[in-house]
Each structure stands twice: as structure tokens, then as C-alpha cells.
Amino acid sequence: MDRIEVSNLNRQFLFRLQDVGKPKAEVAAKRVMERVSGVNIVPHFCRIEDKDLDFYNDFSIIVLGLDSIEARSYINAVACSFLEYDSEENPQEETIKPMVDGGTEGFKGHARVIMPGVTPCFECTIWLFPPQVKFPLCTLAETPRTAAHCIEYAHLIKWDEVHSGKTFDPDDPEHMKWVYSEAVKRAELFGIPGVTYSLTQGVVKNIIPAIASTNAIISAACALETLKIASGCSKTLSNYLTYNGVEGLHTKVTEFARDKDCLVCGPGVLIELDTSVTLQKFIDLLEEHPKLLISKASVTHRGKSLYMQAPPVLEEMTRSNLSLPLFDIMDKTAKDIVHVTGTTINKGTKTSCLRKLRVVFKGIDGVTDMDTAGGA
Amino acid sequence: MDGEELTEQETALYDRQIRVWGVDAQRRLSKAHILVSGMKGTVVEFCKNIVLAGVGSLTLVDDRLVTEEALSANFLIPADESVYDGKSIAELCCDSLKDFNPMVRVSVERGDLTSFGGDFYNKFDVVVVSCCSLAAKKLINEKCRKLSKRVAFYTVDCRDSCGEIFVDLQNYAYSKKKLDETVECRLQYPSFEEAIAVPWRALPRKVSKLYFAMRVIERFEQVEGRNPGETSIADLPGVLKLRKELCEAHSLNESQIPDALLERLVTATREFPPVCAVIGGILGQEVIKAISCKGEPLKNFFFFDAMDGKGIIEDITKPVHLKPSSFGERGVISL
């Protein structure tokens, strides 16, 4: 969904100065197809959440060059949602959707291969990421120590005090200059050095420093693994490569293990229901369920939309299902997988999420009441 | 410090990388002159990285014409044959690179690098050679070392899905961040000739097998009078025979250079683009470090094998004292 900016040109070499402002997907597709004959690239200029599950299921491999934890989390859940387990709790090979993920920041980067159900998925290893920097409000308001504190004070506190109602626009140079001058005043007050316009931009826009060489190394590692998966010519990276050029040159490949209890790449959160439970009741349950806490849930079963919160046309079409028993609209199967999408609160921020659920209906022939201790 | 400030255009374009290595390093880059020879996939990746980074100038040497094989790994050569017009690979790459960053002066030099004198090499701060014979590597390295100004010398070669980088920064001083302070460090590099003359037996047992394998094939090409990279599976018996001779001379067990590895390197002549990108990325960053004198440079060999994705650094330097037991054994030891 991004458009090309001047600051991209120091490394994103498929783009030229005259492409600034155009959608990245479209320009990249065109440039590569010009150079490599026989390849077909279809650009999609949109958000990753705008595509439905069927779209992603069509692909053999999903390769990621995303810029946030949230985006990776989402696509990871999508790929893992296709995974099914057999009666012995083993992943079924034909449902494994491989993913290759890469990311960089300055001299550091990583590349990894995710085989849902076999290698750890993104959620299994979410502890790898350091906690995101969020300054406590009292530090910003009372006891700043660093230049970044002064900048965030101007950005998050002083702006609203002076411009109540007007939203801060990080792309407006006048707004940025205002934040910079206020940050300088505050820094002078507390005797803190280091506030520059460049740092102000960096802190406010969360700019990630980036260079062409690190990107070349990591994207190459990703391309290599993708080629191996597509052709089967060699065993893949197992399973996480890190590169660090900060001091000298350091690369390492680590074999991380899966989290057996992972909510995303595991067999799915178990939900036991009476056959009388309506779809509406089910959706309400999801909001309260301690492992899920999903609000405004949309539900799909075997590719069929049971209820969609949006767009309005689909919402209207599926609204009548809400009053029907879930058991009935799931074709009266004793147990099956459903997928739900919605929003959840993660560390204070609202994020989109997708979860796989194992729905089991109580009292159906052949299915005895499961021990709730082992269930949801 | 050099007086000139970066222009507004440079500051906007290089913003994201200035945040990585600072304004001073960027200024030094903009004054650096690089010479590159042998425009195959890896070198092309390297050129892309340093042109995007904003070096002062880049001079390309490669008089060969376009082949279908070149097209498979060189993304700077346009797909449209009608623009070739008898131009050399260097000339076609030059046109594409200018497009990547109009602020870098990219040009072509024709002719045999080994015939150029000190005056020519004195124009450059960095020299990178690829697909170069053993004799040429040594000769060009020496020409760089004879100059009064320091010219950084690199070789880079890929065979099959493996790559090798060699670095010679001669007597090199640089700054390194240690915790909160900046420390001044100094390194002493051997020339390529000195490095490969280190007796194999004197090297640690865990030394990358790729080092030996590359040396065997390099020597094979020299003995057979081949152009660099011109080997095939038919040469394997000859290569294995040479391995035997070299291992005997160095008192190294032949199993240290596996048959399978030599077969891989000798057979595949086509380059593998992702390997080119990894090696070209690492080489790009090494050259940027050398120009900016910031950050610990690689010393002095780097190996990469796409099979396991591992990168290995080997320090192949003449030891100060030879163990007494290394004398009196059969074979020739050249130092």
C-alpha cells in the first residue's frame, strides 16, 4: 500500500527519481518484467488485510518484506490458518504453507524460513523481539533525560495543549518544525544536548536507518530459500539467520524450536459448544474467551463466510445467519475448523488478528464430552 | 576535515544511510574513486550497492560482449538486444548504473589492466578484481602496494553457489566503538601472494575447505593456461590429480578438500543470483567501511556457501614464528 518516496531511493533500486509518488507494487512489477522475460508479476496496491484468505491460499509460497511486527503477525496467522492436523496431532503436509521472512535495520538483518507446524511460526518466537520503545508519560512530563524525551514531549503532550483539535501530521514540514523548536526549548530548560531536526524526524516518524548492502544480503538469503522451496534442490535454512555488521561481520544460523502450545500454528484453540448455540452467541463468546478476546469478529468456515462485519454489502447478506445455530450453518459436522478475524488489544494497542478455532459440538454421535481441563 | 558540505539533494537522498554511518562518512564516500574489473553477477551487485551509496566515481573494466550466460546473472544488462550495438558489458553496465544514481560519475576503461602503470592505479582509492587469473591478481595487488597512497585491494569470485572475498588494506588504522568510547585500532594485512603462500599445514584444522578448494582450482587454471572460470566436469580428474600434488607438497590430508566440493566448483559455470547478492552486499559494506575508516574491516578472507547459508571469515596471515616441527618434512615449502 506504500508509495515511493525520495528517501527510498538510496536502496530500493527498482525505483527512480521520476517514480516518486507512484505505488511501489506497480513500479516494481513493471521494472522487473521489463528485465526478466517470461516472469509474470501482478501488483496489488492495497493493505494486506484487504485480501481474503482464499487469495493467500492460492499461492505456494509467501515471502515477506514487511515493516512492522503487527503486519508480520497478521500474515503469519493467515498462513498458519491453512494448517490442519491429523488424528495423531501431526501437521498434514499438503496444508503447510511455507513462508520466508526478512527484515533489516542499519547493519543488522535477519532471514527465516517458516513451515507452519514444523518450524516455529512468528508467534512461537515473538519473545525474540525486544520490547517496543514507549516512554512513560511521567518521564516525558516531569523528568526528561534524553533528547528523544524532549522530542516526544513536544510531539505527544505540548502539541495537543497548543493545537487542541488539530491532528499532528508527520509529513507536514511546518508541524515538524514546530515540534523541533518546542523540543529545543525543553532541552535547553533541562540542559539536555542532542536535539537536532534530523533526530526529531527520526523519533516522531520512527525512521528506521537503512542501507543497500544489508538489504542485498538479507533479500538474497530470502530469494535463496524461496528458490530451494520452489525447486526442492536443497534443504532449507534451518531456520533463523541473523546478520550483524555493526562490529566487523557476524552471521549465525539458529535452529529455534516450535512452541507446542502456540495459539497460531497449533491445532487451534478448542471451543466446545452445544448444538443450540447461535452464531451471534458464538461471536459474543469470542470477546470474553481468555485466550482470544476478539471483538467485532467475522467468521468463515471452509471458505464460506458465515458472518462478515464489513463491507456493508456482505454484512447485510450474512446478517440473517446470526440467529441460526452454528451447528446448522456448519453443515451439522460434529467438529471442524473455523477461522475468525477481528480486533484484539495487544499491549494497549488495537490490532487486527486472525485465529484458527477447533469447534467441537457436544453430545454428537461418536464425540463424547471432552475433558474441559484439556480444552479451552 | 574536508570542507565541502553535502548538497540538499544529497542530504535528502542519503537520509536513511546518513542515519546509519553519519555525515562525515557520507562526505568521504562522495570523494572516493573505485576501479572494478570483471563485470559478472557478484561484481554487478557490488557496483549497484556502492553507486546507491553515493561514491565519487566508479570506473568499469570488461571488454567482453554480451552472452546468454551473462544475461542470466547480470541485471544491469538490459533485456532489449537492439541497444547492445556492439557495446561491451562494461559499457552496457555503465549506462544502467548512471540511471541508479545520477550523482555518481560512472565510466569505462578499455584494455588489459595488467599493462597499466602506477599512474593509472594512483587515480583510485579502491580496486576490486574478479574473474582474474592468479598471475593478474598478484600483479595488480603489487601495483597497488607500490604506490605511496594506500589503495585498498579486493578480489571476489563465485563458483557454483559458493563465494570468496579477499581483502588487502595494507597497514590500516580505523576507529571502533567500544561501549561508550571510540577506540583507535590498527591492522596489518598481507598481500594476496603472501597470504596464499602460508603453508597449509600451518593453518588451523578448522579452516574452511573452500579456501583450499579455491586455491586448487585457481592453480589448475594457471597451469592449464585457462581463462578464469573456464572449467568443466571433464577437468575433474586433472583437478583431483593437482589436489594430490598440492596436498603432498603441503603435507595436508587430501580429505581436507572433498571430491564433492571440487566437483561442484569445477562443473557449474553459471552464476547463482542470490549468492551474487549476498557476496556483493558484503563486499559493498566492506568497501564502504574502508573508505570511511569506520568500523572493523574483514581480515582477510570471507567464504560463503549457499548450501548451508553460512558465512566464514578466515585470517590467513603468515605466522610470526614457524613451529620447528614443520621443517624436515618432505615437499617444497614456499614462503
TrEMBL record, chain A:
<dbReference type="InterPro" id="IPR023318">
    <property type="entry name" value="Ub_act_enz_dom_a_sf"/>
</dbReference>
<dbReference type="GO" id="GO:0005524">
    <property type="term" value="F:ATP binding"/>
</dbReference>
<keyword id="KW-0067">ATP-binding</keyword>
<dbReference type="InterPro" id="IPR014929">
    <property type="entry name" value="E2-binding"/>
</dbReference>
<keyword id="KW-0833">Ubl conjugation pathway</keyword>
<comment type="similarity">
    <text>Belongs to the ubiquitin-activating E1 family. UBA3 subfamily.</text>
</comment>
<comment type="pathway">
    <text>Protein modification; protein neddylation.</text>
</comment>
<dbReference type="GO" id="GO:0045116">
    <property type="term" value="P:protein neddylation"/>
</dbReference>
<keyword id="KW-0547">Nucleotide-binding</keyword>
<dbReference type="InterPro" id="IPR000594">
    <property type="entry name" value="ThiF_NAD_FAD-bd"/>
</dbReference>
<dbReference type="GO" id="GO:0019781">
    <property type="term" value="F:NEDD8 activating enzyme activity"/>
</dbReference>
<protein>
    <recommendedName>
        <fullName>NEDD8-activating enzyme E1 catalytic subunit</fullName>
        <ecNumber>6.2.1.64</ecNumber>
    </recommendedName>
</protein>
<dbReference type="InterPro" id="IPR035985">
    <property type="entry name" value="Ubiquitin-activating_enz"/>
</dbReference>
<dbReference type="InterPro" id="IPR033127">
    <property type="entry name" value="UBQ-activ_enz_E1_Cys_AS"/>
</dbReference>
<keyword id="KW-0436">Ligase</keyword>
<feature type="active site" description="Glycyl thioester intermediate">
    <location>
        <position position="138"/>
    </location>
</feature>
<comment type="function">
    <text>Catalytic subunit of the dimeric E1 enzyme, which activates NEDD8.</text>
</comment>
<dbReference type="GO" id="GO:0005634">
    <property type="term" value="C:nucleus"/>
</dbReference>
<dbReference type="InterPro" id="IPR030468">
    <property type="entry name" value="Uba3_N"/>
</dbReference>
<feature type="domain" description="E2 binding">
    <location>
        <begin position="271"/>
        <end position="362"/>
    </location>
</feature>
<dbReference type="Pfam" id="PF00899">
    <property type="entry name" value="ThiF"/>
</dbReference>
<dbReference type="Pfam" id="PF08825">
    <property type="entry name" value="E2_bind"/>
</dbReference>
Automatic annotation (TrEMBL), chain B:
<protein>
    <recommendedName>
        <fullName>Ubiquitin-like 1-activating enzyme E1A</fullName>
    </recommendedName>
</protein>
<dbReference type="GO" id="GO:0005737">
    <property type="term" value="C:cytoplasm"/>
</dbReference>
<dbReference type="Pfam" id="PF00899">
    <property type="entry name" value="ThiF"/>
</dbReference>
<dbReference type="GO" id="GO:0031510">
    <property type="term" value="C:SUMO activating enzyme complex"/>
</dbReference>
<dbReference type="GO" id="GO:0019948">
    <property type="term" value="F:SUMO activating enzyme activity"/>
</dbReference>
<keyword id="KW-0833">Ubl conjugation pathway</keyword>
<comment type="pathway">
    <text>Protein modification; protein sumoylation.</text>
</comment>
<comment type="similarity">
    <text>Belongs to the ubiquitin-activating E1 family.</text>
</comment>
<comment type="subunit">
    <text>Heterodimer of SAE1A or SAE1B and SAE2. The complex binds SUMO proteins via SAE2.</text>
</comment>
<dbReference type="InterPro" id="IPR000594">
    <property type="entry name" value="ThiF_NAD_FAD-bd"/>
</dbReference>
<keyword id="KW-0436">Ligase</keyword>
<dbReference type="GO" id="GO:0016925">
    <property type="term" value="P:protein sumoylation"/>
</dbReference>
<keyword id="KW-0539">Nucleus</keyword>
<dbReference type="InterPro" id="IPR045886">
    <property type="entry name" value="ThiF/MoeB/HesA"/>
</dbReference>
<keyword id="KW-0007">Acetylation</keyword>
<feature type="domain" description="THIF-type NAD/FAD binding fold">
    <location>
        <begin position="14"/>
        <end position="310"/>
    </location>
</feature>
<dbReference type="InterPro" id="IPR035985">
    <property type="entry name" value="Ubiquitin-activating_enz"/>
</dbReference>
